[in-house]
């Protein structure tokens, strides 16, 4: 049956008949429960796979209360406080939510906590500070007018995801769920036995969907129940004295809180990772994947599939880490916020299938007065679809409260179109891959392939002013006909550059994405200069190659043809003129969106061409360097026009302009994906407006297409 399969629907006790009807209408072949819902017994005999959401770390407060030392823990850091006398008392939980977190006084604070003089960066000896469990404070012998922080362990006495759902969905009566640490000895045995019993008691369940395994990404709330610190990739909540003792034995050196709370920062993905932090990540991934495999083996022993949710407690199971495939999972499912997060899921290897939860979730923060779930569904599908044509998910689905979706006028019709189009893509391409550029492009940053499709993100597709100008690059690339790799600076030293025609470096100065101190590594810069000089292409966005050193800010300013004025060269006059006639701009009409842009960028050298500038500062510059080429963008947010601009930039930087129109469409709001093996070309309209576009094959115009809003049109080659 054509319009059947590849779809998972949520259900609940209050929508039994409606679930049956919608399953038939949409051709769903799987049903699931969600956090806060239950699987109706009346649906267990349906012709559909049954997914059971399974929690290894919560939903058993009796166990957590009986074993308080094995509750999950997190490293926190206090605010900075200035000492004005020779003594300073810091209240540990000031600004944190005391219903979520509680300082750990069970394990000796003098062993596991750290007081830092942030004026000097020195550790305050344990003989110079005391703690009070009764007052929840630390008193420090201080140097007047120095600044101090305390890094301390705290128990997660309310699971962060449960707290988030409690707040978002306005739960009133549900008890706060404690979160326990499955890595701990007693809890580990308990969780394994509990999983066996669940499998035995639920023979109707086909798929155990782990949410996820053991360590929550960092999600910390303030004293007003607002999100205080969110790090979707963070390891702050994967610590305990038990785990850290194991790490010390493995690594051969003592663990410090400063590896997690780095120079007073929570050690986010934006920080250039220290050797010790990378060691800790490596250790955690080894141990988490090894234990996760034991749980997956239990599931398999009962003839069930094991699925991992890429979110919540996923730390240590990163799918692009070196140990992920050893877990033996059948599937990974995750939330599809855009094309980037779609690719983050669909590119995963080592599983039998991948599944995406399309947005919006059926939650009351969207399905409410003033909400626009249909608009969100359209936007989500337009971004996801272009990436699906490049790297298809095997399945899609939705989550949340089905009743909300059923009661919203027109919403079911909207997702019916999405589901049918998703199946149509699979039916047409028949497992084949779309044409990509005849050369490879590398994204260069400190994380490389371990953080594939995760560049510059704070919190899984959430918009931030400081990052959208950079995230736009990988969002564009997620649906473009480009063969992409993600590399780090060690890869450069190891000689990988010969595999690529173009390297892209994008991000804010001193972040892991731009590269920071790596740009004064002699081996890195000389290898890149030589590679460009011999014909490579380099694209920099924002503050690429940035590190103030030896009279320049962009360390590859000679390659880029630009540098940034930071106040040290104001005495040098700069005579820059715009010449906007260039291959890059042939399709581009009107204003170019550079996002937040960048002040102070000026061109220099003899081979640059400024294509766009604002208030005297360059925004888009091309440069030639020996046989190679470079392009500088002040920023590149996602938009259909910027996707086209980036496509042209990549082909020009590669010196392959003549090959760009192998498969091509003239209107920047459209894109094309060619599946040569099945003789089909997909032309997509990435807007909600009707439009016209010309289709080119091998450089020749073959057809003019009039496309309906959001249309996907199949053309036979």
Write a short abstract of this structure.
By secondary structure, this protein is of the alpha/beta class.
Q: Determine the number of helices (DSSP H or I, runs of at least 4 residues).
A: 16
Radius of gyration from the CA trace? 27 Å
- The share of residues in extended strands comes to 25-35%
Residue runs with pLDDT of under 50 for 5 or more positions: none
Strand order of the largest sheet: 1-2-3-13-18-19-20-21
Taking the alpha carbons of the first and last residues, their distance comes to 26 Å
**Molecular shape:** globular
CATH class of the domain at 59-183 and 214-307: Mainly Beta
Largest sheet: 8 strands, parallel, barrel
Output the CATH homologous superfamily of the domain at 59-183 and 214-307: Immunoglobulins
Give me the secondary-structure category.
Answer: alpha/beta
CATH topology of the domain at 59-183 and 214-307: Immunoglobulin-like
Number of strands: 38
Roughly how much helix do the residues carry, as a percent range? Answer: 10-25%
What's the overall average pLDDT, rounded? Answer: 94
Corresponding CATH architecture of the domain at 59-183 and 214-307? Sandwich
Protein name: 1,3-beta-galactosyl-N-acetylhexosamine phosphorylase
InterPro entries: Class_I_gatase-like, Glyco_hydro_b, Ig-like_fold, Lact_bio_phlase-like_N, Lacto-N-biose_phosphorylase, LBP_C, LBP_M
Domain Lacto-N-biose phosphorylase central: 440-658
Domain Lacto-N-biose phosphorylase-like N-terminal TIM barrel: 5-436
């Amino acid at each position: 049956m054509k319009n059947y399969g590849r779809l998972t629907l949520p259900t609940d006790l209050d929508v039994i008949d409606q679930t049956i009807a919608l399953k038939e209408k949409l051709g769903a072949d799987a049903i699931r429960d969600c956090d806060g819902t239950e699987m109706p017994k009346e649906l267990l005999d349906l012709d559909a796979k049954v997914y059971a959401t399974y929690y290894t770390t919560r939903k058993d407060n009796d166990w957590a209360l009986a074993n308080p030392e094995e509750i999950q823990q997190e490293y926190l850091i206090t605010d900075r406080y200035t000492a004005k006398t020779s003594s300073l008392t810091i209240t540990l939980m000031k600004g944190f939510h005391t219903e979520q977190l509680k300082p750990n006084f069970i394990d000796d604070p003098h062993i596991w906590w750290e007081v830092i003089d942030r004026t000097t960066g020195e550790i305050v000896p344990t003989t110079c500070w005391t703690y009070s469990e009764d007052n929840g404070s630390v008193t420090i012998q201080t140097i007047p007018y120095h600044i101090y922080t305390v890094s301390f362990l705290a128990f997660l006495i309310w699971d962060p995801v449960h707290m988030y759902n409690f707040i978002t969905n306005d739960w009133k009566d549900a008890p706060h769920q404690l979160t326990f640490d499955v890595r701990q000895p007693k809890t580990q045995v308990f969780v394994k036995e509990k999983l066996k019993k669940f499998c035995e008691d639920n023979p109707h369940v086909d798929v155990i969907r782990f949410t996820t395994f053991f360590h929550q990404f960092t999600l910390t709330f303030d004293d007003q129940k607002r999100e205080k610190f969110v790090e979707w990739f963070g390891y702050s909540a994967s610590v305990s004295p038990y785990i850290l003792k194991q790490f010390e034995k493995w690594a051969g050196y003592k663990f410090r809180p400063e590896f997690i709370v780095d120079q007073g920062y929570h050690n986010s993905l934006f920080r250039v990772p220290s050797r010790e932090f990378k060691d800790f990540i490596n250790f955690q991934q080894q141990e988490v994947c090894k234990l996760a495999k034991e749980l997956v083996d239990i599931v398999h022993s009962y003839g069930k599939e094991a699925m991992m949710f890429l979110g919540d407690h996923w730390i240590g199971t990163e799918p692009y880490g070196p140990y992920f495939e050893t877990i033996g999972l059948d599937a990974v499912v995750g939330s599809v916020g855009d094309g980037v997060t779609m690719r983050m899921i669909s590119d995963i290897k080592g599983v039998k299938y991948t599944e995406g939860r399309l947005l919006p979730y059926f939650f009351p923060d969207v399905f409410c007065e003033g909400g626009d779930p249909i608009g969100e569904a359209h936007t989500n599908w337009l971004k996801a679809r272009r990436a699906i044509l490049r790297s298809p998910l095997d399945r899609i689905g939705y989550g949340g409260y089905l009743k909300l979706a059923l009661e919203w006028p027109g919403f079911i019709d909207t997702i019916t179109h999405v589901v049918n189009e998703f199946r149509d893509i699979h039916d047409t391409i028949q497992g084949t891959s779309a044409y990509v550029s005849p050369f490879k492009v590398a994204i260069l940053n400190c994380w490389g392939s371990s953080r594939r499709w995760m560049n510059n993100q704070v919190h899984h597709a959430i918009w931030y002013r400081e990052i959208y100008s950079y995230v736009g690059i990988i969002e564009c690339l997620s649906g473009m006909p480009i063969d992409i790799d993600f590399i780090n600076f060690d890869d450069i030293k190891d000689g990988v550059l010969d595999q690529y025609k173009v390297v892209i470096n994008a991000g804010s100065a001193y972040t892991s994405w731009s590269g920071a101190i790596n740009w004064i590594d002699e081996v890195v810069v000389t290898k890149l200069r030589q590679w460009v000089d011999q014909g490579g292409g380099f694209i920099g966005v924002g503050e690429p190659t940035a590190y103030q050193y030896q009279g320049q800010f962009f360390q590859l300013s000679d390659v880029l043809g630009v540098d940034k004025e930071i106040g040290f060269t104001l005495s040098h006059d700069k005579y820059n003129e715009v010449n906007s006639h260039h291959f890059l701009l042939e399709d581009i009409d009107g204003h170019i969106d550079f996002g937040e842009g960048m002040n102070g960028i000026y061109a220099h050298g003899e081979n640059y061409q400024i294509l766009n500038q604002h208030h005297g500062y360059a925004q888009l510059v091309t440069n030639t360097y020996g046989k190679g080429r470079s392009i500088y963008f002040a920023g590149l947010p996602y938009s259909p026009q910027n996707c086209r601009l980036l496509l042209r930039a990549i082909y020009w930087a590669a010196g392959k302009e003549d090959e760009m129109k192998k498969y091509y469409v003239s209107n920047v709001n459209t894109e094309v994906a060619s599946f040569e093996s099945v003789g089909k070309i997909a032309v997509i309209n990435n807007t909600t407006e009707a439009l016209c576009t010309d289709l080119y094959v091998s450089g020749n115009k073959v057809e003019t297409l009039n496309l309906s809003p959001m249309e996907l049109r199949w053309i036979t080659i």
